[in-house]
Structure formats: structure tokens, C-alpha cells
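ok here's the first one, seq then C-alpha cells
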Amino acid sequence: MSSTEVDIDYQKQTYAYMPCAEQQPGHRAASPHPVIVVGAGPVGLATAIDLARHDVPVVLVDDDCTLSTGSRAICFAKRTLDIFDRLGCGDRMVDKGVRWHVGKVFLQDRQIYAFDLLPEAGHRRPAFINLQQYYVEGYLLDCARAMPNIDIRWKSRAVAVEQHPDHVALTIETPAGCYTLCGRYVVAADGSRSPLRRMLGQESHGHTFRDRFLIADVKMEAPFPAERWFWFDPPFHPNQSVLLHRQPDNVWRIDFQLGWDADPVAEKAPERVIPRVQALLGPDAKFELEWVSVYTFACVRMDSFRHGRVLFAGDAAHGVSPFGARGANSGVQDAENLAWKLAYVLQGKAPDSLLDTYASEREYAADENIRNSTRATDFITPKSAVSRVFRDAVLTLARDHAFARQLVNSGRLSVPAVLHDSTLNTADADAFGGAMAPGAACVDAPVADAAAKPWLLQHLGNAFVVLVFGPPAGLDAAQAEALRTLQQGGIPLRVVFVTDPAISASAQAWPGATVLRDAEGLAASRYDARAGTCYLIRPDQHVCARWRGADVAAIAAALARATGNAPVSRTLTPSAPVQAAALA
């Protein structure tokens, strides 16, 4: 990243309103736009970029002309970084962000334990980076503005919506007046107070927590390491909790629990904030307040993320507490799940019913996030005498006993949901170990190839991929020909071979395929692969099927299922247990 990029103050950038084609005199209604995305936050921008990369034109409307102010969401997980890589802006995020993987938990003034979120080597991306939301939005926006098939319209507020059999009509309010904007589908990424959700008469249901927290972004030079520090009942803020994170530009995020009775207006005043920070840092500490906010939170979601041709994503669809960094990360994962499905439906590669699986899969993920977030919040802020006794006993025992540390919950940090029960999966017919079951997000591993892309995930995604472990010569002539024929069908399909590192990739030519070498043997290990093992990977880098041998008929059937082009017997249910014979 250049120094010019580093110095951009995205909080001060403004983007000009420009009248659009629909507002021109004499404009005649044309065909509806393929997709309208409402909301230019991280989720809306990620959705628009992903759709554009699938050659789908997008109109992106936002009611403002600026990016977010204050750090807001700051913790971005490895899976989200993998998605940003696929969208083309991962390097900027990681280069600017503060990498971390270690967390420490304190009771009063004593550390009770530490944890490592990425204890093994051989991953391209760190477990987490801390990066202010305005940088994330800025980098995504720069990417979106460089794409000719994304039309960004600022100061364009959706004020009414009408659904029709083949399109959605939005009334857009602008400085030049209102106009009608029509799209075949609308993605509502318009935030936790989603106006589109209200216009459709929908609500989010769940639990609002009776507590308040103060966020203070503090600019200072400090010796603290780039780690997540969480205090229960610290001497500088007794009977409450405190969370500390380092951000870029020498900015530190400090979250102070305040209690439900705290006055949210009074607590934001500098004369109330500065003494709290000084109590943590010491009376002689030199610092400046950059941004202050007081918040409450809820664990809620819409009953359904799909309403006809309007699909809800991110905070518009679901909300969680900030403990665990599950909000923005799950929203970006909504975007990656939805974009390829919308593209396939619009391009005639899949039926409209494929979009129902966006709703069912991401509702399942939202329920998992809400469950984990609620448990963390109940532990951090016990609401009864009994739960407080339990929590304090666990914390006391955790100092000396490993079993108790497993019960400490300062926020189970974001991991991608494994969509075990998705109707798009093909159940295992062979015995496998490891984490790469159908429904799981692919993990990375170092590889060697001639294209200067030394990581496995750089070769997966954006289309369906048949991932074969072993050299191309391992396929017999009939299977090789059948696989080439399958590639010529209506669904884009790439073939990637991962071979033993001792075998030269240049000697393993297979027309139209990518041949990689498993540089350290980690790819085979992480995918529980042996010679002939074969995976079918979705465009969003999720496993949808795997076999011990590359049977092209089985691959074709799994591809049909994964695109919604094959009948299925049931739908994903959030509370359903994993069934080994599901969808067999």
C-alpha cells in the first residue's frame, strides 16, 4: 500500500450526488436493472462487488454521501479476509490492519488465562485484523468505483417499495426530487434500522439486553501488544467489564461496561470519559479522544431473510452483541452466499428457488451467531444473583484449573457457520475425517504453481471447482473425457489438481486445468485427502460434496443439487442435528 493510500481520511470524504438516467427529461422506462443494492456499508459494497465480478450489473443506492464515522466494527476474521481476497481488496485490508491472534482474560488485576486463535502455521491470513470500519468501507468503495458495471448513487433514499411478479419498484428520494427505480431483485443492506424492512411490514425478533457500554477510541502511544485484553471486575472499573483492542494509526478501542442505569448522553461527555481512560492508563498518560459512543444491543433476526424479490443481508436481517465480532463478519458472509446465487438465477443457470437457500443457510448461521452472542452476554453481564455466583466461581477457578477456562466466555469469536444440513450439499458416501465436511468453508494451505499464486484459496471460488488430489494422470481416459464434457455444460466449472510436492507441476499438463503442488503437505492433511480424493467447491468457497474417487456422474449430480437444479427432499432447519445420511 502506498503512503498516499494510507493517508486518505475516509471519514472526511464526500461523494457527489449526480442525477441518474431515470431522472433525465424524456426518459423512457427500460427493462428493470438486474439487481439494486440498498446501502453502501460493508455488506452492501461487498454484495455489489461480488455480483459485478459475476458479470451482473448493479445499481447501489445510499441515503448519504459519506462513509461511516468512528471505528464501529473493527474486528475482521480470517474467513472475512479470505472473502476480501476473492473480491480483490484483501491485501489493502491486511496491510493496513493490526494483526492479532492472542487474547488474554483478566480477573481484577490478575491474568487468568490466554488463548491463541491460530496456533498453527501455514495460513495466508491472520486469525483477525483490527481495522476501523471507515477503512474497510473506503477500500471496498475504491474497488467498487473501479468496476464499470456498478452504478453508485449517493443521496438516494429508498422511501417506498412495490413488488411485482417480475420486478421490484423503489421510489428513490434525491436532492432533485423522487423517481422510480426498478430492479429484478433488491438486496436490502440498509442497516439495523432498515427502512426497507419497515416498508415491507417486517420486524426482527429476539432479545434486547438491559445494559449499556461506552466505546472510547483513544489515540495514544502505548506499550500494549496487539492482543485482545478482556477484564472482569478490574480495579480501575470495579464490578464491570472492560475490553481493549489496538487499531491502526495508534488508536485504541476501549469498551467500558456501564450498566443499564447509566445516562447515555452524560456518559459521552469528555469529563466522564477521560477519568475512565485515565483510571486504566494511569493519571500521567497522554491521549486524545477520537470518537465516543454509548450503545445497547440486541440479539435479533428477521423470521425470513427473503421476502419475494427483496433479500435482506447484514444488520438489516440480524443483529448480535459486539462480543465475538460476529456482526460485520456474518454480514460479509451473507454477501458472499447471496451474490453467486443471484448471479446464477439472473443468468439462467439456476431456478429462482436457489435464492430460498440463501435465506435458509444464512438464517441457520444467524441463529448460531445469536446463540453464541447471547451466551457470551449472559456470562459477561449476569442478571441474577445465582448467575453472578456461577460466573465469579468459574473465573476464580480458571486461574488454576484448565477445565474452568473452557467455561469462561468473554465472547466466542467469529467463525464461519458449517452449513451441515444445507439442501445444496451431497452427503458423504465415503468415510472422511477432518473439518472439511459438506457445508464447511474451505481452509487455506500453501501450494506451489507457475502462476505466482502460492495459496490454495487463490485458486478456488467465483465458480464451481472440482478439486482433485493427485496428478491428472490419475484419471483414466474415460473419466477425463467425461469431466471435460461436464465443463462444457451450462455451469462454469474449473478443475484444480493438487499433487505431491515431489512431482513437477510442469510435467502434469491437463488442458484447461490448474495443477498445484502441495508445498508442505498441509492441503492433503487439512482436507483428509489421499490419492484420488475429490471435492466439489461452490463459488463462495464452501464444500458441497467430496468423494474418495473422482466419479464424474456423481460430480454431475452434486453440481445439479448445488445449483438447485435437482429435486431435494427437505430444507435446512436451524435446530436440526447433523444426519449422516442426509440428502442421500
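and now the second one, same deal
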Amino acid sequence: MRVALVSVGLAVVSLSAAAATNRGVTSATSPPAQAPAPARPDTTAGTATVRGTVRDATTGQPIRRATVFLRVTPALASGAGAADRGESLRTSTDASGAFEFTGVAAGRATVVASKDGYYDPAVTWNGAPAGGGGPAALSLAAGQLIEGIAITLSPAGAIVGRVVDEFGDPAASIAIEVLRREDGRRGLLQTAGRRSESDDTGTFRVWGLAPGEYLVAARPRQMDVEGRPGQSADRDGFALTYYPGTSAVADAAPVVVRAGRDTSGVAFPLLTTRLAVIRGQVVGMDARAATRVTVMVSRIDRHRLGNGATGSSAGADGVFEVTRVPPGRYNLTAREGADGPWGPLNRAGSVEVDVDGADVDGVTIPLGPGATVRGRVVDERGQPVRRPLRVQLSQSSRDFAGGVAPPAPVEVAADGSFHATGLFGPLYVRLLTGGPTPMPLEAAQARTERQASGDPPLGITALSVGSVDMLDRAIPFAGEAVEMIVEVSTLASEVAGTVQWARAERGAGPRPVVIVFPDDPARWHEWSTSVRAATVSSDSTFSVRYVPPGDRYLAIAVDGLPPGEHREPDVLSSLRALARPLQVRPGERHELSLSAVTWPLR
């Protein structure tokens, strides 16, 4: 069966012995996988065979019914459309933990495996990568036989606990979320493991967790959206509560999970609160249209990714009522469409509301059409870029409140044009590579630079909406039609030089990172192409490439900054006064000599 490759929560093994060693995966082949047996005479594509086993990393026992994917990217000459012909194959292990793929096309291949109750050893431990990097794929020839691929999966851990009310009685049917800090991003949390709900004794168990530190949150399912008013008599309820019994993320206690073990005893009381009602009306509805208007309500929490949303249809007159709302800040989004809350949109509108325990009346949500963008991606000469690309218009993950999801990335045509509709701002613009597995252009740059051949990497140099420079800025679409030009270039502007730091003479431990960023806080966000960083090399040199041109940049070397945190606005704000100003001109190399500051700053 051919399916789309799933990469989250999978153990990855390259058909390369060197990569396998780095990822905690062993190869049973002799000679190593990078020197495979000679190819059979058959040169027809789709005739290779790959065999291997999946075992428990702790016991060494075979894992039955594990899911194994084989991803093949054809080894074609560079050019548009080459990446579009990749394929994914899926199979399951048998009683001995063995798997086999037959009829595999020639190309670059990687194997991944997963099984409930196990975690990927390449995931993070407290936000720090486990090491090994990405797998190096093998060039798989037609008719070739590779066997002895050995994949190990590690048993996952679990958190077991209990929630009670203010009287110590069991709190049943409470949604329990386990949260971990996203890799390299301070204060931003995302759910991990399998979600759970407390039973009639208040007990819960969240499983499928990789080793690390987590926060545990109890989120009562009490908020509701009704088209008819007057349904809310009960005003007592529970607030979002973090273990060991607090409403503040900063006061939450971490829970340590170890591989293959249950962490038990995570018991805490839920906080009580006064629940409110939000009443309002959606205006601008078209009574003649055969559409429905849905009001989606989601809590705004800057500490978290993916807060979810509750929604229901508004009345024929647009009247809605949200009942049993705990204190907090909420996004209310009205969506007009023919296919329910997640179908295609005709019009939408949103407002933000603060709730402090008192009812909120008179909320008005105006409906409006989405914006339309007609644009072009061009090079520095104004000519179309002859490479497969996609344009993505999306919210920051901190800003997405579960109301209007951004559209899927749109393809850039051969003449450089692209067209997107139904846009509701604010949205950022990113460029992705083409093919079946698009990636951000910044990631493609790094990958291309590591390869010995291929097209030179591209970098965004400018983005204009009409006559306004909007590079790395949120575009506040409001129903209009706009023209957009995205300029890219192979002429990489570079900031390079040397760094001095206190621990350099010891030659051990992490090295500093050099950050080049614009002196404009509006451009400091997770998808900024202007905020660039590079780790200092062992010879104390650095090179930061593909910095978009600009007159007001800052550069600084920082020792001790955790990976990925160079994009955090509060980090950049604290470094701003210590950084060196510079101008970045198109296609030029700018030399700097920097002395690293130590993080955290004193």
C-alpha cells in the first residue's frame, strides 16, 4: 500500500551504517550498508528489495505489528518535477519482528518505524536534540537486495495521577493534557503523548511519552456555544489548572518521565472559579444564501501551541451565546460556509474578548470576505525562478486561535505567478520548496549547501504588497485584492568573521551562536527570514548567509544560548543594546570581529 509518509513519532533509520550508529540504530549487514551487494543485472525501476527487523531497545525482543515506512526519492537529474515522483511504501512486522519491501524503485531511501507504547529516540529531551542529525540516504539501485536493517524502538513512559475538586472528591471527565516545551522556544508549550480523561475516581494516565520533563494541565470541558440564549443557570465551575494546583504556567511543577516507566502520584486539586456568559450577534449574514454561520471560541494562551476551539451554529438571526466560560482572553471567530465549521469559507470575522467572571454582553462579530492575492516570485532581474516552489500564507503559531485556519500552500507556476483566495489576516508569507514534502526555503538552503552538487540555494531578498515593503511583517488582509511580489536571489549576502569567547581555550562544550537580526521588533517572529544565526566553528570563525539586504541590522555573538532561542522576541530585545549595528548590501560579504556575551545576561 502506498501512503503519505508520517514523520512525527517515528524512529528513523537510514540505509547507511554510519547514520544508523548516530541514531541509536544498528545494522546487521556485512559489509556495511553503504557498501551494498552488487546490483543485479536487471535495470528496471521498481525491482529492489529491502529487509530488516524491528526490536525493543531494552529487551532486544522482536516487536510484532510495528508499522514500517520506506521512503524513496528517485535519483533523477536536477530539474523541476524531479522531487514530485517520490513514493512511500508501508508494511507491518511479522511475529519475528521482520519486515520486507519488494518492488522498490531506484533512488535515495530511508526507513522509519513506529509502534504504540514506544517513542522515537531521535526526539527531544527537555528541548535539546538527542543527536545524530538527519539520516543520510543510500543510493538504492534497481534490482538491489539490502537485508539486515535493524531498527530499535525504546519503550515510552507514562504519567499517572488523580484530580479532585475543592472538597477532595473525585473530579470525573476532566481532560488531562501533558505539555512539553517546544524545541528551542522558551515558554511555548505543546501537547505530548496520548490525551486522557479522568475516570469516575478522578484517575488519569497519559502514555506514549519520551523521556524528559513535562507539565500536566487539567482542562475542564464545560464551555459551550448555543444558538439560543438563556441556557446558562449554573455559574460555578473549574478553571484551567496546572499541577500541583495553580493557574499560572510559571508556577507549574515539572514532572520527570523516564523511558518505559510510569511516573505516578501526580495528584492535585482543581481550582474553582466563577463562569461567565458571552452574548452577541454575527452581523452581515445573507439570509438568502444556503450557508451556515459557525461561532468558534478558543482561549488565547501565548504560552501554548494549539489551544483548540469549541463551536456551534449561530441562530438564523446571528444571535449566539457562549456559556460557562472560565476567566481568560478568548478569540471568537464567525465562519460562514456551506459545509460546516471546517468547510470552505465564504466570509469570516473575529473579535477578542476578555472574561473576568462577569457576563459579557453586546459582542458584535462582522462578517467579511477573505482577501485575494495575485503575485509573482521573481529573481533579482525580475525574471521567473525556474524551480518548483510554493507560497505559504499563515499565522504565527502563537497567534493562531483555532478560528480560521490558513489556506494550504499554493504552487508557483512556471511563469512565476501564484494565486491565493480566502485569506483572513494577519498572515506572514513564507516560501517553500516544491515536491511531495515541501520544506521552508531556509531549511533547503542549509541542505543544499551541504551537498556537493545541485542548484545553488535561494534566499528571499524582498517582499512587497503593492508599493509597501512587507518583508517579515504580518499582512493585515481585510477582504481586499492585493498584488504581491516576492523577490529571491542566489546572490547570498553574508555576514562572516571571528568570535572571541571565554571558554574558547578549553575546546569543550557548546560553542557560541552569532545572531544577525533587523533593528525592528515587528520582524522578530518564528518565520522571519531576516533573523539568521550560525554556530561558531571550532576555529572561532562564523558565517551567516542569505541575510536579506537592509540598512538597519544588528549582530551579536552569544555564549550559552539554548538552541533555537535566537528567534524569541524577548531574547532579541535583551540583546539589542549590546549588538553591533551594520548594513547588509545585496550579494556582499561583511566582515566582523565579535566578542561573545554570556547568556543569561547579568
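notes on #2: Confidence is low (pLDDT under 50) at residues 1-44, 76-84, 123-136. The chain is about 5% helix and 45% strand.
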